[in-house]
Design a protein that fits this description.
The structure is a homodimer. Chain A is of the alpha/beta class. Chain A has 8 helices and 5 strands, in the order E-H-E-E-H-H-E-E-H-H-H-H-H. The longest helix of chain A is centred in the middle third of the chain and has 23 residues. Chain A is elongated, with a radius of gyration of 22 Å. Chain A binds a DNA duplex through helix 5 and helix 7.
Chain lengths: 195, 195
Amino acid sequence: MINNTKILVINKSDIILLGLNDLLKNSLSNEIIYINSADELENYPHLMGYIIVLISENDFYQNKALINKQLKNATKIAYLFIELNSDKISANTINIYENADSITNKINELLSSFKRNISNKNELSKREIEVLKLLTKGLSNKEIAQILFISTYTVISHRKNISEKTKIKSTSGLTIYAIINKIVNIEEISTSELI
Amino acid sequence: MINNTKILVINKSDIILLGLNDLLKNSLSNEIIYINSADELENYPHLMGYIIVLISENDFYQNKALINKQLKNATKIAYLFIELNSDKISANTINIYENADSITNKINELLSSFKRNISNKNELSKREIEVLKLLTKGLSNKEIAQILFISTYTVISHRKNISEKTKIKSTSGLTIYAIINKIVNIEEISTSELI
DNA sequence: ATATAAATCACTATTAATTGGGATTGCAAA
DNA sequence: TTTGCAATCCCAATTAATAGTGATTTATAT
């Protein structure tokens, strides 16, 4: 469900890594990386998308530049600081003495906030997809409006939103986007329909 | 080479049909139909494309309505009148007393005029393909003009001609046309270029 | 309960595209 | 050598699209 979200755990202690692994193995993230130090990030080029980093606050500040460099392709990064100090407890901090539920809750909360982020900011809504399909068939905003029984203004609004979300303005670009993203099937489109 | 061109021979005399069959069997046409009367056209529904009709002038005028009805889906029809009268000789007339070469020449001339017709009227010119490629990349007429060092008017002219030839008016339709006809490669188009 | 976002509609100004005429030049084939 | 086409350019009228804002309603998730 949460696509494109990775969890990156950086901690010197293997015991902590193993413990977190146990907590996270049933999480909704599709990839979890465990490393002992930020230097090992070099073994993971191409890290991109949504990334949750579990790291000690200390390690974070000491490796800030390196982490930023290695995660430069990330869409969004969220940090959860793992602390050994029993009196440091906050929303963006995990204390190793917290109970398991509390920790998994914090992580799942982050994951679902990412989910909201992903779905709401990048994915096209049902209506937008309908508009895009008709657009791909060569129909004008006016014609699309007539088919969907909405006003031309609304179609224009949808197109604006589609272009904002996809960052694609041109009709040809949107057509290619629709084909690539399987919103329309090029095989099913008879050229005779395009007149 | 000559695709979509049919020869339709209509003559009461089987001997003439057989004789013409001998003359035409090596012609460039991809389908030759021999019938004794225009009524038999009912057995050939869906006749379309480029059609050369060999018929006597008399039969033609007596069956004009029927022939027009049965050939209503033809893209273009050319008539060659087969005459029994030895003094009727002209470019669009075949006299059965003409020698074989003369007859095949007349038919091949018609076929190649059709070929010119087909290739020139439907295929996109070099410049049109250039314009189509840029169009597919989401560029406006103005931008295309700047890239090709021609005026926007010319780009518009090219687009008019492209739409006339392909019968496709919409940008999305032309994009799909370009993909289907390998004028652009969808794999090579990075969506980031489409912004 | 409230914030969010999807879906709807509206207006104006500006820019772009289309349509439907023309015209000219140069080349290449019949 | 004429005919046809490709390629170029031009104009005016019309239609369509885009940008920039803003507003309402309804459903959903926290």
